[in-house]
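Tokens help. One example:
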Amino acid sequence: MEIGIAQIDTLAGDFQATADRVVACSEQAAARGVGLLVFPSAILTGTAPIPYVEQEDQLADLLDVFSDLGRRVKCPCLVPIVLLAEDETFSELILVADGEMMPLRFAGFARGERGVDEPSDFIGDDSWNGVCFEFGGLKFAAAFDFDGLEDLALHPHRVDVILYLPSCGYAIDDAPSALGAALSENHLLADAEDARAWLVAAGSLGCYDTCIFPGASFIASPLGELAASAPAFEESLISQEIRQDGEHLDHPLEPEVYDRSFFCWETLALGMRDFVHKLGFSDVALALDGTLASMALATLASDSLGPTHVHVLMASPLADYAVPEKLRLAQASARHEDTVPTAWSRALSAADRRDSCRHLAANLRVDVHECDEVFRVATQAALESARNDEDRIAAVRRSASLAQISLAELARQSSSVVLSSHDKTWLALEAHVEVPFAAALLPLGDTYRTNLLEMVRTRNTISPVVPDVQIALCDLPDLGLGVSQEHGYEVESLLRRMDSLLEMHVEWEHPAKDMAAQADEKDLIDLVLKRLDACAFARTSAGPVLEASSHTLEALRRPFSYAWRDHLRSRDDSSEDSLEDMLRNLAEAAQGSELKDEDIAKELNDILGYLRDFPQEMGRGAHRGGASDTQASFGSYPVDENPFSEN
């Protein structure tokens, strides 16, 4: 049987328009002889369910849509939907064929209630929570996340075809999320080989809510060979004949090389374009404030939407101002000081990029605007009357606030979506230093600054449009650490260490003690964790963020006004031995006697040892079930110096 994948970009919730697209794809597939056409998870309902109070009415409309599709499609189709049941999200898979529709997960539940084992006994693992069904003489199992796919690869089953319909978007730290574009870096082909089944991976395409899906669908044979592959970032229809002869493919495809920085840049460009267009806009407005993030955002917006749809406000600190003579000495002193850099010296660092920002705007050919003259006069007066650094810093911050007002007016006049250049590093460590300005979108809000630096450098190899691609003082979060502006390598190195610690805590989910065990920078760890907590409230009003990692900062949010926070301890405060003693005493108290049996004590120690090891090992290098580049293989389990599954 020929199985196809229709990789299309749709507007979630626009049921009738999407149904028309499904019918059109089925016509193309039928002309190719496709016997079953598979659609990605997000096309009808997206991947983020609507509120529970509206679910019943939505389901009624969906039933009408599928009833209509049953009469119109030209070949059998599998269409996933995402629903909500008792506050839990679950995916359903609808088979539309021969004028009828069948919800396959619900049908499996119904068979189970009647005591019918077929076809749920395809899977040997009772805990597996996917969808099983038969069609066209083949046995199918559908997995909606990497854990479900891994279960099929590791446990006995009687399945001919595995459908992988992921509902999680792309993450820069998770190579499997790139699907067919990163087969050289992930284990998906190996999973098909381990499962000894055809793997049909249908990737969603476009931006749904704030998740970005790059497409890159593919079909792999039971021998781990790439049979068919759809390109990333564009719509496509691919198909492959499913054979059961166990032979190698006549002409297997070679997986493409995965460039993480370039792929993430293109994914963010796709996400920005799709997000803006689905809101009903075509243009964006942003400010060039001298930071690397603002220059990266302007370049990304131009690549995404085209330069004629990008309106840029020149907002570098102190730009075009007549700086009084008494401040020139302060400027010279701040630029050459080797002590702790002040907010004033950071503002000067951003001001030094004024010409670079103008050159960038000229290179991109975007629409350039200046700040309102009234605001410029007010800032000039504030600078002239400044008596000390505190007054100068206040003037600079007021100037930034006034620039945001000018940006809002520019967006109104050009009917544009306001973009913020604040990245994940800013949201984590700098959001407290100013009153957050709520933007319509933070395209870089889930991307660390060091990743952004690598992406801009990669972008410049294609076309060198960004004149200044380095980390300056204005790009370094102020944690009170001494670093000189003249030592560029030191500034970049410190930023990399900050981002590395953030990633360790946010993406890898390491507590403070495990961070200290892997990075001998206890003072910096303490500063980073304190600032991460201090910025939590300000992050709530920053605006929606395009998701580009396995864990956003929102996933780390704790209750407001919660006094306790994670911190580093000395060994005496919380040693492993004292923890074991405490648990042993509790066990003895529960049993009413001392544990004299050496075997029982040894077993307890073993369990405690495993409990200590798991937090240190889980999440290292791999996220959402993916395996890192440095991991070895222990049988079918990706491991990192221990034989335990990452899950």
Residues 499 and 579 are 31 Å apart (CA to CA). The mean pLDDT is 84. DSSP finds 20 helices and 20 strands in the chain. The first strand starts at residue 2 and ends at 7.
